[in-house]
C-alpha cells in the first residue's frame, strides 16, 4: 500500500516548477455549500497551521502569502489513474482505492513479486524512494490485508506486518485507521473508544446496532476475517512477454514491429505449455509515467503469432489520432489472458474443412478493426415480442445457449426497423385489416392483408405483478410504466402482414385494443421480401 | 535486333498474362451452379431497387442469389450495412432470415461507421476462403463507392471465387465494374391456397440489366423474369395467377416452367446439391 497524502499539491508543483521554486505555501480550495473551503494543503502550509476544511478567507488571513488554487478533481483523478497504471511495472495487480477519494491511495498486490526486488523491505524502500525522488511525499506499508496495509500506511508508515500479526499491529492505532466514515469515527471517539485495541472486547451485536454493518465490515476486513478483493485497473495477464528499450521509441510502426517479435516469443511459450489464449493485451509504458493499453479478443483460443500481431495492427489502425506516444515508449509488454488448453492439431488430408477456423479468424480481424459490437450474429431467444426475440451478440463472444426459443409458425419479416415508425392508417371498420397507410409522407394502398396476430405484453418483464382480478387493471394502468410500448392492457399489439398494389409487403401493428386504449396507434415495424 | 525481338516477346507475354486476369476471362471455378437465375461464383453483382420502400424485395433477392452460391466448404454469408442506414432500411431480422430458408445463426451482420470501412470489410471478407457470399446493403450513393472501388471488389471476388452483392437503391446507374446488374421490383404475389386475400410467397420482377446468364451467349441484357421464391429456390411465376382475383383453386406453388437447359435437378435445393 502506498499513500500519497499530498498528491494534489505535489502534482500541481510538478506541473509548474515555478510554484515549487517560489516556496510559497500552496492550498487548493473547493466550493462547498456556498463557502470556499480548503481541501488540500502542502507541507509548508501545514507547518503554518493550515488544514483541510478551513475556509479560504480564514486561511488567507492566517497566511498572507498563501497561493490558493481551485481544485480540478476530474483532472486529478485522471492523472492518478495514469500514475497507478504506471506502477504495473512493479506489480501486475494495481488498484486505486476509491472508498474515500479517487486519488491518494494506491494498492499493489505484491504476492510473488517481492523477491524480484530483493525482498519486501527493499521493494517498499525502492517504490517509496522513487516516488520521493519525483517530488511526491509518500508513505508506504506492507501487510497481508488491504485494511491493515491502509491503516499502517496512514498512521505508522514504513512497517511491514507479517501475515497473522495484523491484530497486534492495529491495536495501538486510532479508530480512524479502520477506513471508517468520518461520522462513525467521531461517534466512536465521543464514546471514548479511541484506539482499535478497545474495540476487540466489545460486543459485536451492539456495535453493529450502534455503528452500522459497514463498521463491522471494515473491522473484519482489516483483520483478515473477511476477504476483500482488489479491483485491478489493468487487465491481468496470465502470461506475458516484454521488451525494454535503451532509447524510447515513438512510431506506431516500430511498436507494431516489436509487438510481432513479442507475439512470437509469447506464442512459443504458450506452445510449450500446450495452451492458447483468447484475450491479448498490449501495454505501452511511456517515459512520462503513463500506460496505454490495447486489447484484442479472439473468437477461439489461439497462439498464432502472425494472427495476434495482425489483430493488433488492425486495432492500432482504429486508434488513429488517439495514439500519443508522448516523449516515447520505453517498455512494451504483451500479455495473454483467458487461457485455455489448446492441443496441437494436425491438418488432416481427408478431413472435411468446414472453414470455421478461417471464418473465426476473419471475425477476429474485423472485430479488432471495427469494434466487437460491429460484428454481430443474431441469436433467437425465448420471447414473443419481435424486437426481443432476437439478440445481436458479438460474433467473437458467443454466449452460452439460453432457453430454447419457441418454434416459429407465423411469418416474420426480412427486415425489422430498430425503432417502429408511427404511421396513419385507413381501416374500413375498427377491427378490420388496414386498407391503406401513409408512411414517410407517401401513401400506400393495400390490396391484401393477413392477420391479426395478437402479441400481448410480457407481464413478467414489465416489473408488475400479474393481475388476477379484472377490476384492478384500471388501477394498475393508472401508474404508467416507463416504457412506451409496454403498458398493461394498452400494450397489446395486433400485427398484420399487408401487401400494397405494387407488391410491397409490410409488417404493421396496432398498439392497444379498441375500447381499452384511448386512441390505438399504428406502427410500421418491418418489411417482407 | 535480337534484343528488341526478345523484349517484344516478353512484353507480349506480360500483356497476355494481364489479359488472363480472372475478371477479364470468364472465371469458372468448379462446376457452375445450375438452376434458374444461377450465376457463376466469383462475380460482383449489383442489385438495384427503385426506392427505399422496396428494401425488403432487394435484400430478399440478394440473399436468394447468395444462398445459391454457398457451398459446404464455403458456408460463410455476411451482411454488411452502415450504422446510419439501420433506421432507413431496417436491420436484417434473424427470424425472418430463418423464414426465408437461411440459417440465421450462421449469418454474421457487420455494421460499420463509414463507407470506407464498409468497403474494407467487403474486401477482407471476400478474400477469406470460407466466405461464400457477401451482401452489402447501401442506402445512398457514396463518393467512395465509384468505378475504382467496384473494380477492386470485382478483382477481389474473382480472385477468391466468393460473390459480392451490392444492394443499391434508386434509378440512377453509375459506371461500375460489376459483372451483373439486376433490377428487382416487387410484384403482387400469388394467393396462398386457403386465403384469397392474404399475401403469398415473395414474388419479384427481375430485370437483368447487365451481364448474361448463359456463358455461351452474349448480349442477353434486358431479359425479364417474374420469379417466386419457394423453399427450393427460384421458380418462374405463372403470370396469370398474379392478380389473385380469379377465385378458382390455385396450386400451393405456382407451375414451374423449366428453362430449356435446366434439368429437373435444378429445381432441387442447391445447398444440398452443391456438395
Class derived from helix and strand content of chain B: alpha/beta
Give the C-alpha Rg of chain A.
32 Å
Radius of gyration of chain B: 20 Å
Low-confidence stretches of chain A: 465-486
Describe this structure in words.
The complex is a heterodimer of chains A (529) and B (275). Chain A has 529 residues and is α+β, with helices and mostly antiparallel strands. Chain A has 5 domains: 1-140, MutS, DNA mismatch repair protein, domain I (3-Layer(aba) Sandwich), CATH 3.40.1170; 163-234, Orthogonal Bundle (DNA polymerase, domain 1), CATH 1.10.150; 239-343 and 358-365, Dna Ligase, domain 1, CATH 3.30.1490; 375-409, no CATH class; 415-456 and 492-527, no CATH class. In chain A, 30% of the residues lie in helices and 27% in strands. Chain A has 15 helices and 19 strands. Chain A has helices spanning 7-15, 17-22, 43-47, 56-62, 73-86, 120-133, 146-155, 166-170, 182-190, 204-211, 213-223, 252-273, 305-319, 356-370, 472-478, and strands spanning 2-3, 26-32, 35-41, 67-70, 93-96, 105-109, 139-140, 239-249, 275-286, 291-302, 329-341, 375-380, 390-394, 415-427, 434-439, 442-455, 493-500, 505-511, 521-527. In chain A, the strands form 5 sheets. Chain A has a 6-stranded antiparallel β-barrel with strand order 14-15-16-17-18-19. Chain B has a single domain, classed as Rossmann fold (3-Layer(aba) Sandwich), CATH 3.40.50.300. Chain B has helices at residues 2-19, 55-69, 86-89, 94-100, 115-127, 147-160, 270-274, and strands spanning 44-49, 76-82, 91-92, 107-112, 131-137, 163-169, 180-186, 203-210, 223-230, 233-236. In chain B, a hairpin with a 2-residue loop joins strand 9 (223-230) and strand 10. Chain B is globular, with a radius of gyration of 20 Å. Chain B starts with a helix and ends with a helix. Strand 14 (415-427) of chain A pairs antiparallel with strand 3 (91-92) of chain B.
Amino acid at each position: 500500500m502506498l499513500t500519497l497524502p499530498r498528491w494534489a499539491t505535489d502534482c500541481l508543483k510538478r506541473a509548474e516548477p515555478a510554484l515549487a521554486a517560489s516556496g510559497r505555501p500552496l492550498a487548493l480550495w473547493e466550493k462547498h455549500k456556498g463557502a470556499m473551503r480548503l481541501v488540500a494543503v502542502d507541507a509548508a502550509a501545514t507547518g503554518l497551521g493550515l488544514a483541510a476544511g478551513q475556509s479560504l478567507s480564514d486561511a488567507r488571513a492566517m497566511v498572507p502569502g498563501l497561493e490558493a488554487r481551485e481544485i480540478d478533481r476530474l483532472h486529478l483523478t485522471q492523472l492518478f489513474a495514469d500514475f497507478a497504471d504506471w506502477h504495473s511495472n512493479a506489480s501486475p495487480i494495481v488498484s486505486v482505492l476509491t472508498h474515500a477519494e479517487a486519488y491518494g491511495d494506491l494498492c499493489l498486490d505484491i504476492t510473488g513479486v517481492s523477491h524480484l526486488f530483493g525482498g519486501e523491505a527493499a521493494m517498499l524502500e525502492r517504490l517509496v524512494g522513487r516516488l520521493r525522488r519525483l517530488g511526491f511525499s509518500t508513505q508506504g506499508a506492507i501487510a497481508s490485508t488491504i485494511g491493515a496495509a491502509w491503516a499502517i500506511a496512514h498512521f505508522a508508515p514504513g512497517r511491514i506486518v507479517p501475515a497473522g500479526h495484523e491484530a497486534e499491529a492495529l491495536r495501538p492505532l486510532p479508530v480512524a485507521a479502520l477506513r471508517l466514515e468520518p461520522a462513525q469515527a467521531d461517534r466512536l471517539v465521543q464514546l471514548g473508544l479511541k484506539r482499535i485495541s478497545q474495540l476487540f472486547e466489545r460486543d459485536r451485536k451492539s456495535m453493529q446496532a450502534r455503528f452500522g454493518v459497514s463498521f463491522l465490515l471494515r473491522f473484519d476486513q482489516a483483520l483478515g476475517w473477511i476477504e476483500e478483493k482488489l479491483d485491478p485497473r489493468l487487465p491481468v495477464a496470465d502470461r506475458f512477454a516484454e521488451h525494454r528499450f535503451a532509447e524510447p521509441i515513438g512510431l506506431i510502426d516500430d511498436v507494431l514491429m516489436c509487438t510481432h517479435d513479442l507475439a512470437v516469443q509469447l506464442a512459443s511459450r504458450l506452445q510449450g505449455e500446450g495452451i492458447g489464449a483468447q484475450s491479448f493485451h498490449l501495454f505501452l509504458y511511456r517515459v512520462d509515467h503513463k500506460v496505454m493499453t490495447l486489447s484484442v479478443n479472439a473468437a477461439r483460443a489461439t497462439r498464432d503469432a502472425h494472427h495476434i500481431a495482425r489483430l493488433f495492427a488492425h486495432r492500432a489502425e482504429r486508434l488513429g489520432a488517439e495514439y500519443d506516444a508522448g516523449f516515447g515508449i520505453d517498455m512494451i509488454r504483451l500479455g495473454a489472458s483467458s487461457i485455455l488448453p489448446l492441443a496441437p492439431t494436425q491438418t488432416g488430408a481427408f478431413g472435411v474443412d468446414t472453414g470455421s477456423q478461417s471464418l473465426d479468424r476473419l471475425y477476429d480481424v474485423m472485430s479488432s478493426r471495427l469494434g466487437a459490437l460491429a460484428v454481430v450474429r443474431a441469436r433467437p431467444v425465448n420471447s414473443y415480442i419481435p424486437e426481443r426475440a432476437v439478440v445481436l451478440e458479438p460474433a467473437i463472444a458467443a454466449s452460452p445457449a439460453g432457453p430454447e426459443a419457441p418454434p416459429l409458425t407465423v411469418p416474420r419479416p426480412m427486415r425489422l426497423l430498430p425503432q417502429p415508425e408511427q404511421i396513419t392508417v385507413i381501416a374500413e371498420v375498427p377491427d378490420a385489416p388496414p386498407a391503406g397507410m401513409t408512411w414517410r409522407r407517401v401513401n400506400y394502398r393495400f390490396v391484401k392483408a393477413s392477420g391479426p396476430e395478437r402479441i400481448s405484453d410480457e407481464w413478467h418483464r414489465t416489473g408488475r405483478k400479474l393481475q388476477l382480478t379484472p377490476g384492478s387493471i384500471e388501477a394498475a394502468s393508472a401508474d404508467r410504466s416507463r416504457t412506451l410500448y409496454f403498458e398493461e392492457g394498452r400494450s397489446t399489439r395486433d400485427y398484420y402482414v399487408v401487401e400494397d398494389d405494387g407488391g410491397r409487403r409490410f409488417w404493421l401493428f396496432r398498439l392497444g385494443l379498441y375500447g381499452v386504449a384511448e386512441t390505438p396507434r399504428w406502427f410500421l415495424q418491418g418489411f417482407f421480401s | 535486333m535480337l534484343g528488341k525481338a526478345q523484349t517484344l516477346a516478353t512484353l507480349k507475354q506480360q500483356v497476355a498474362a494481364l489479359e488472363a486476369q480472372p475478371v477479364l476471362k470468364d472465371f469458372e471455378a468448379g462446376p457452375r451452379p445450375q438452376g434458374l437465375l444461377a450465376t457463376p461464383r466469383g462475380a460482383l453483382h449489383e442489385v438495384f431497387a427503385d426506392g427505399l420502400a422496396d428494401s425488403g424485395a432487394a435484400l430478399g433477392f440478394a440473399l436468394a442469389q447468395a444462398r445459391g452460391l454457398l457451398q459446404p466448404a464455403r458456408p460463410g454469408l455476411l451482411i454488411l450495412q452502415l450504422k446510419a442506414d439501420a433506421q432507413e432500411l431496417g436491420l436484417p431480422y434473424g427470424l425472418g432470415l430463418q423464414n426465408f430458408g437461411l440459417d440465421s445463426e450462421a449469418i454474421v451482420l457487420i455494421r460499420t461507421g463509414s463507407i470506407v470501412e464498409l468497403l474494407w470489410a467487403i474486401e477482407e471478407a471476400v478474400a477469406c476462403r470460407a466466405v461464400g457470399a457477401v451482401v452489402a446493403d447501401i442506402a445512398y450513393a457514396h463518393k467512395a463507392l465509384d468505378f475504382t472501388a467496384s473494380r477492386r471488389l470485382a478483382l477481389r471476388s474473382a480472385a477468391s471465387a466468393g460473390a459480392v452483392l451490392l444492394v443499391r437503391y434508386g434509378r440512377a446507374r453509375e459506371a461500375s465494374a460489376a459483372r451483373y446488374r439486376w433490377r428487382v421490383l416487387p410484384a403482387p404475389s400469388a394467393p396462398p391456397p386457403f386465403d384469397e386475400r392474404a399475401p403469398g410467397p415473395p414474388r419479384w420482377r427481375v430485370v437483368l440489366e447487365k451481364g448474361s446468364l448463359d456463358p455461351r451467349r452474349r448480349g442477353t441484357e434486358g431479359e425479364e423474369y417474374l420469379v417466386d421464391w419457394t423453399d427450393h429456390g427460384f421458380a418462374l411465376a405463372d403470370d396469370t395467377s398474379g392478380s389473385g382475383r380469379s377465385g378458382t383453386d390455385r396450386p400451393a406453388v405456382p407451375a414451374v416452367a423449366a428453362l430449356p437447359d435446366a434439368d429437373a435437378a435444378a429445381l432441387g435445393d442447391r445447398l444440398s446439391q452443391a456438395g
